[in-house]
Amino acid sequence: LVALRYCRPAKVELFRPSLKAFVEFIKSDSRLARAIVAKDWLSFARAYSGPAQSGYNTKMRDHCNDLRLEI
């Protein structure tokens, strides 16, 4: 998601269907939805990738913090 801000508008349109599908997937799973609203990155990563999520939670946290700094 963070990489999208560096894309040209036409390229962003290519990502739109995938991003919409990912959002719908998160909405369909109450564990994912609760975790992302709470910014509980470890719970989100475990629900999405399983217990061996290998640092996904810290990447999500860092990207969220980067986006927050830009706003």
How does the SSE layout of this entry go?
Layout (H helix, E strand, L loop, with lengths): L8 H20 L1 H8 L3 H9 L6 H15 L1
Describe the protein's architecture and organization:
The protein is mainly alpha-helical. It is built from four helices and no strands. Helix 2 runs antiparallel to helix 3 and helix 3 packs across helix 4. The longest helix is centred in the first third of the chain and has 20 residues. The chain starts with 8 loop residues before the first helix and ends with a helix. The mean pLDDT is 82.
**Radius of gyration, taken over Cα atoms and rounded to an integer in Å:** 13 Å
Q: What would you call the structural class?
A: mainly alpha
- Strand element count: 0
Q: Characterize the main sheet.
A: none
Helix and strand run:
HHHH
Q: Describe the global form.
A: globular
Strand content: under 5%
Helix content: over 70%
Number of helices: 4
Whole-number mean pLDDT: 82
Instruction: Extract low-pLDDT stretches.
Output: none
N/C terminus separation: 15 Å
Can I get a quick summary?
By secondary structure, this protein is an all-alpha fold.
